[in-house]
Amino acid sequence: MTIIFNNISKKFAKNTEHEVEALDRIDFTIEENEFVAIVGPSGCGKTTLLRIAAGSIKQDTGQIIYRGIKNPKAVMVFQDKGLLPWLTVLDNICLGLELQGIPKNAREKRALDFMNLVKLSGFEKNYPHELSGGMQQRVALVRAFLTNPDVLLMDEPFGALDAQTRTILQEELLNLWSRERNTVLFVTHDIDEAILLSDRIIVLSDRPGKIQQVITVPMSRPRDLKAKDDPRFLEIRSQIWNLLEQEIRKELDLM
Amino acid sequence: MEFTGAGNTQRTGLDVKYNREHLVTFALVFGFLAIWEYCARAGKISALIFPAPTFIIQSFFTDLVHGVYTKDTLISLSRMFTGIIIGGGTGLVLGLIMGWSKPVRKTLDPIISALLPIPKLTLLPMALIIFGLGETSRTVMVSISAFFPMLINAMVGVAQINPTYYEVIENYGASRFDVFRKVVLPGSLPFVLSGCRLSFQAALMITIGVEMMWGNNGLGSVLWLAWETMRMTNLYAVLIIISTIGVGFNWLLGYLQVVLLPWHHENRPA
What we know:
Structural class of chain A: alpha/beta
Order of helices and strands of chain A: EEEHEEHHHEHEHEEH
CATH architecture of chain B: Orthogonal Bundle
CATH topology of chain A: Rossmann fold
Mean pLDDT of chain B: 89
Structural class of chain B: mainly alpha
Order of helices and strands of chain B: HHHHHHHHHH
Number of strands of chain B: 0
Oligomer: heterodimer
CATH class of chain A: Alpha Beta
Strand order of the largest sheet of chain A: 5-6-7-3-8-9
CATH architecture of chain A: 3-Layer(aba) Sandwich
Low-confidence stretches of chain B: 1-15
Number of domains of chain B: 1
Largest sheet of chain A: 6 strands, mixed
Largest sheet of chain B: none
Mean pLDDT of chain A: 88
């Protein structure tokens, strides 16, 4: 299975005279089991692209083609508010399976096995508000992986967390992903996070979002946090930073 | 990461903490009653209008065990709950629809806004003309009064749900019905329960008010008769019964809130 983003453009109309161009002719292909990150300055349309892929908004031009699969399933992981506050942790994790019509016993067994794996056991009956932000995002990740989607769409899932917690969760995501190997499209503004996690990085320009460059991360898998000390890591980081710096400065000067 | 603090805490909401403030509350009430009692017995105030509290309570319980108020209490309660079920039920359904569907909300909102500020008791003459001098008029009056608070709260309850929750569940392929039972209903429940409380208060007020103005049964008419015949102990007795109904229902709703909304912030431990 490959996912082809073909010539995707999107404008938002605040009113008829004033249009904001969010995405401009986005063209790229994600291979099966590939982890692709999208980085770019804030407001460059990263999230818009994900939401188009999830089907929650419609693009103006172009299309997303899932080659080699019928009825593709794209599951989104949100930055926050992704858990329903009135459902317990277990019910939240089972939500995706429940809506797929998997019987209660089966889905709870799968959920509990998975929870055990990421050390969430013992929190089944807690409500989201009783968990820290990091734990909540862990629950959101588990729920998304559990439905085994064709593509996982992650919208800055660690964006609201403090730096330490984020580092831990990045490592957990690496572990989880090397086990499950789902195709992932991961939006972030954290360059280090993008390099650490992904196979390829798409660097978008400032509004309207346009692909500046696609960078392949050469470091081998499985990776852990030590990959950040790799000289190639530092090299890619400065490469991406050089691309983004002009964009960000441009935006700041305009303001 | 350790998260030992997030264990399951069982909260029933039934255990009231008796702290220093509650002692002061009790002392205030008891002090007031004691002064009243003294003044009534010493003849400082008219015992005809303000009989001693002990006398009021004594005759209240005597009447109660003789079933003096049973029939009228049941009549008032059944009127009230019929109105709550009809009016509150309609308000709930319409409110959820208005909260969920923006076009419906935009269409009906001006009408609701125009009707909302009308004091509902003023509709009694119209009700009597249209529905006649029977029970229907009373039911209509109580239903109308219970309708509005429920409608407003259900509508706001749905409208305030964070849009991300819809996106989450639709992303997992939820049907309209799934969205309703997994997001709309639980998400609006805190507001719906507040709506129940306000509906109940409005229904109680209008039930008693209508009975006072017209008719010859129900607690309101007993109250009015007591005033007309200057039987003050009866008057106080009816006030005690009405207050008990009000406090009892509020307590029940508070309990439901804790049982049904363990996730909601108002029920979280401080």
